[in-house]
Amino acid sequence: MKKTTKLTLTGLAAGIALAALSSTAQAQERWTMTTTWPDSIDLIEIDRHWVELVNKLAGDELQIEFRAGGTLMPGTEVFDATETGSIEAAGDWPGYWAGRDSAFSPLAATPSLFNAFDYLNWIQQWGGFELYQEVYGQYDMVYLPYGITNNESGFMGRTPIESLADLDGKRLRLSGRDQGRVLERLGGSQVTLSGGEIYQAVERGVVDGAEFSTPGVDYNAGFAEVVEYWATPGWHQSASVFGVMINKDAWDALSEETQEKLKIAADATLAWSLAWSERESTEGTIKFQEAGVEISTYDAEDMARIQEVTNEVIVEGACEDPMHAKVYHSMVSYLQHYANWRDVSVPYNMSRSFDNLPDLEAIEACL
Q: Which of 57, 70, 154, 170 has the maximum number of C-beta atoms within 10 A of its C-beta?
């Protein structure tokens, strides 16, 4: 009898333990995530890549249900939805939120300053990651940068732009706060349109030209069907950063181990996104050329003028907002510091060698 009782109790204990394990396995977090990008824009692939990695690496602890941009809400509403916790996460381009805080602008892209390798270096080793947390943290969010593309295509349209003189009086679709200010000082006029509106705006002559993204993204958006001319390089966005906004409460509900897995997935996606984008840009450029689009390039004098105006805009914008100044101060400090190695490793360096940077002391005075 005692032996039978003992076996019965042992079996009961095993059953309880098994039930507990089963309960633990099922007690995973489930997130809803969307993005600013609809399925028709290739940039959504960066979001998908990160989600797929997270679901593989942290699948026992977290599963993310990903929805394309526009299927849950308009892309313009994803910031508020993530901040309030209506959804747990959303992919974005930080520049869309510059109206809330101008510091979002350089976190997304810079006119004629950082290239993709600069953003990678700065985010990973020169304090950039912490600044994303500081800016997004004001809105109860954690931010993981997980996408970088190199300089964008440049202006495309039905009117040739072969020099800065050709910008005079032109109405050009352009995204970005600092970018618009540079364009206006060069004689052009900024027109704000969503990505989905660009094709028809060019086709109907609503704008004289437009920029959107990299050559691969632009080609797959159909631009080769409506443009005849393409002005390079894309000085307005010498690189772009994308990432995921995560509601702070949702983030804090994760274990430290799971949080680390999300960061690992972001780092892996950063590297993947740059190679993916450069391959797609190469193939897109070939396809534009095959479609008969005429490509022109600004000369050295024009590029020097663009840099001069960019530096003025960066300093003036920094002095309008301390956080904006803090971000650009960090960026320019990085470029000066990195120059100690960068400039002695030409031509094998991974970043531009500058002879004209924004005035760091002037920015510092505005902190």
A: 154
Q: Is 129 annotated as a binding residue?
A: no
Domain count, the chain: 2
CATH number at residue 297: 3.40.190.10
Question: What's the pLDDT at 2?
Answer: 46
Has 152 been labeled as part of a binding site? Answer: yes
The answer as to whether 9 is a domain residue is no
Question: Do 60 and 166 share a domain, yes or no?
Answer: no
In whole angstroms, give the CA distance from residue 329 to residue 252.
Answer: 30
Specify whether 51 is located in the same domain as 107: yes
Q: Is 237 annotated as a binding residue?
A: yes
Domain-embedded: residue 1: no
Q: Which residues of 161-173 are buried (b: 16+ CB within 10 A; e: fewer)?
A: beebebbeebbbb
Please say whether the beta carbons of 309 and 185 come within 8 A: yes
Q: What is the pLDDT of residue 23?
A: 40
Same domain, 116 and 42: yes
What is the distance between the alpha carbons of residues 19 and 26, in angstroms, rounded to a whole number? 11
CB atoms inside a 10 Å sphere around CB 186: 18
Which residue range(s) make up the domain with 307? 155-238+291-342
Q: Tell me the pLDDT of the chain averaged across its residues.
A: 92
Q: What is the pLDDT of residues 197-213, one digit of tens each?
A: 999 999 999 999 999 99
Tell me, yes or no, whether 85 and 132 share the same domain: yes
Mean pLDDT (whole number) for 11-28: 47
260 is in an annotated binding site: no
Is the predicted pLDDT of residue 15 greater than 70, yes or no?
no
Residue 361 pLDDT > 50: yes
**Against a cut of 0.85, is the pTM above it?**
yes
